[in-house]
Amino acid sequence: MQIIDATPVHLAAITAIHNHAVEHTTAIWDEDPVDVEDRARWMSDRQAAGFPVLVAVDEAGEVLGFGSYGTWRTRSGYRRTVEHSVYVREDQRGKGLGRALLTALIEHARAAGIHVMVAGIEAGNVGSIRLHKRLGFVLEGTMPQVGEKFGRWLDLSFLLLRLDDAAVPPARD
Fold this sequence. Notes:
Elements: E1 2-5, H1 11-24, H2 36-48, E2 53-57, E3 63-71, E4 81-88, H3 97-111, E5 116-122, H4 126-134, E6 138-149, E7 152-162
Parallel strand pairs: 4-5
Antiparallel strand pairs: 1-2, 2-3, 3-4, 5-7, 6-7
């Protein structure tokens, strides 16, 4: 397995993994699948903003999972905080791909001068919360019933990872 920057050749697989999560999990709180053009716009927007879109591929180049991070909030005061997403193909879960993708995103964010990485996780997703805690994320709070899917209310847990020890922010770019 190798983690590389995503290119348009990976979009069909990224779309399929995304849509599986939409249709079968509470990892994504959207209820409607998207098309490849939607994911192409998403990837283009992320990459144009300097954010990574990474894919985990096997020896044949088949996409096993993907991850990215982007703007946490649009106000300038949040510029050193990002929120990430990692999705692994259903038949590849439990093999360390999520950990590898998240680790690569953390390294990228540190190199980019990001101060905090946010994970917004459905509170019942014990596996994802456990993975994040193992990588140093701290559960900072849970907001009850802020979402809905599959006919039930969803609670949103926020986990944070501080990526540096800066006592004050660097001078504004």
